[in-house]
Specification:
This protein has 184 residues and is mostly helical. It has seven helices and three strands, in the order βββααααααα.
Length: 184
């Protein structure tokens, strides 16, 4: 068996000439160099030129529907758990704010949340059920779940109370992401 050492050769040097041509097809970019000596490919999601604007990327009707749906679902969720919340925290056992004040405050919060999620979904190109569910889960784990586990650990918030809030946030994020992510 004859094994000869391999000769080392430097990488090909780019010859002077016209710049490489780029062809764009279905989100793939193919670069063909002079003399077909260098070929490269990369993938990137399709992007429309120009800035992202609310009228082009984010559906305001979907944002409104998502905010109201999340508000109604959250109200029903907390209404069903009212007795448990009163046992877990004095904030729910004592005197409450007016229904109008609470409703207005929660609607504004849900609109802000829906706008942020709609912008993320539009920027990421989320238009199907699978990606919408994945985005919702990622957002829930990254923000409410992390914040609530921190409050349990550092501020000694009861696990059951944090669990109730985590369930509400999961419900909100799922509803909003599904409504704004899967729009016609």
């Amino acid at each position: 068996m004859n094994i000869a050492p391999r000769r080392w050769s430097p990488a090909p040097v780019r010859r002077p000439g016209p710049p490489p041509r780029r062809r764009r097809r279905s989100g793939f970019s193919v670069t063909i160099g002079p003399g077909a000596r260098t070929v490269g490919a990369s993938w990137s999601p399709r992007r429309q030129s120009g800035p992202v604007t609310a009228d082009r990327e984010v559906n305001p009707l979907a944002v409104g529907v998502a905010a109201v749906a999340a508000f109604v679902a959250s109200g029903a969720y907390y209404g069903a758990l009212a007795a448990r919340l009163a046992r877990l925290s004095p904030a729910y056992a004592g005197e409450r704010r007016s229904v109008a004040t609470t409703a207005g405050f929660e609607l504004v919060r849900n609109v802000v949340l829906a706008l942020v999620i709609a912008g993320l979904a539009a920027g990421l190109g989320v238009t199907a059920l699978g990606p919408a569910l994945l985005l919702a889960l990622a957002l829930w784990v990254a923000f409410p779940a992390v914040l609530l586990t921190g409050s349990v650990f550092h501020e000694r918030v009861p696990v059951a109370l944090a669990g109730i809030h985590a369930g509400d946030w999961l419900l909100k994020v799922l509803i909003i992401t599904l409504v704004v992510g899967i729009r016609a």
